[in-house]
Amino acid sequence: MTNINYKYNDGGKPKTVKGKGDCVVRAITIASGLPYTEVADALRPECRKHNKLIKAGKRTTHRGKNSLTSGIHKEVYHSWLLSNGWTWTPTMLIGQGCKVHLTKSELPKGTIIARVSRHLVACIDGVINDTYDCSRNGTRCVYGYYTKK
User: Among candidates 16, 6, 7, 38, which has minimal Cα distance to 25?
Assistant: First the structure.
């Protein structure tokens, strides 16, 4: 089944960049309009800083190291987005059921970066812009989203 609310978009990812876990860089690139390499270069030192905290034992809960192509921890991208003029809007609280799904009818108009389970995705006027349709046929819950101030 083809989702008409999905558009293939790799954010201009260079062919030389390997790995599939680049959703953070890709979503920010698509939503901001900044070049892929510029976003990657901005996030790289933040990942390194966070990895040093993990190595020093100052971060006890983690899922391995941060990497631009194998996943960036929430602490890293969340603080980076907030410091770069994005606003976080939660749509789900702990212990609360899903209120917003990754569907055009439930997403706000405009450009957002939606946070879903283990993934960030850019949505433009409710249309998913990503390398695959991550909506799970409209059942995927949106934990919250970022909008540019």
Answer: 38
Burial class (CB in 10 A: 0-12, 13-18, 19+), 81: buried
Per the confidence metrics, is the pTM higher than 0.85? Answer: yes
Taking the C-alpha atoms of residue 88 and residue 57, their distance in angstroms, rounded to an integer, is 28
Structure tokens at 35: 């070049």
Q: How many residues are present in the chain?
A: 149
List the pLDDT tens digit at each of the 149 positions of the chain: 557 799 999 999 998 887 778 999 999 999 999 999 999 999 998 888 877 776 656 555 555 556 666 678 888 999 999 999 999 999 999 888 999 999 999 999 999 999 999 999 999 999 999 999 999 999 999 999 999 98
The CA R_g of the chain, rounded to the nearest whole Å, is 15
